[in-house]
Amino acid sequence: MVQHEFVVQTNWSGGRESVGDLKGDVLSEQISIPSGLGGNGTGTNPDELLVSAASSCYIISLAAVLERSGFNNITIDQSSIGTAIFENAKFRMDTIIHYPVISVETNQKELLTQKLPKLLKVADNNCMISNSIRGNVSVKIEPKIK
């Protein structure tokens, strides 16, 4: 078994209107409760970080899968939307949808169209975040080829 640790430090002082800090190896950001949930909306928040983690993990996995499959000049522009719900007196992330727009060399577009459904699944299965939230959050991929 291979193991790798990811260390972050968080600090918070005060109640729900306060602002905390999040620091990792590279990431340094203020955190608060989103304004849509009654907080002050300063910096980022755990919900946005979860969707960001899922989106960045998936786009990296997809790029690697496309490269290993022989595609060249890969460009992926992706937006991801996380939908949280309030259920059983708790908030939880229900669904994350990734919308990758994939561009490859012109002479490879037809091959990409044929292989894309399988490659999307392989990328999802290679994404650590998808694997970590599977069964709790529905992850959907709605791609376009550019």
Descriptive overview:
The protein is α/β, with parallel strands linked by helices. It contains three helices and seven strands, in the order E-E-E-H-E-E-H-H-E-E. The chain has helices at residues 46-68, 109-126, 128-133, and strands spanning 9-11, 20-23, 28-31, 75-87, 90-103, 138-141, 144-145. The strands form two sheets. Strands 4, 5, 6 and 7 form a four-stranded mixed β-sheet that branches. Strands 1-2-3 form a three-stranded antiparallel β-sheet, with no helix packed on it. A hairpin with a 2-residue loop joins strand 4 (75-87) and strand 5 (90-103). Helix 1 (46-68) crosses helix 2. The longest helix is centred in the middle third of the chain and has 23 residues, at 46-68. The radius of gyration is 18 Å and the shape is elongated. The protein starts with 8 loop residues before the first strand and ends with a strand. The mean pLDDT is 96. InterPro entries: KH_dom-like_a/b (IPR015946), OsmC-like_firmicutes (IPR019905), OsmC/Ohr_fam (IPR003718), OsmC/Ohrsf (IPR036102), OsmC_Ohr_Peroxiredoxin (IPR052707). It comes from Staphylococcus pseudoxylosus. Pfam families: OsmC. This is SACOL1771 family peroxiredoxin.
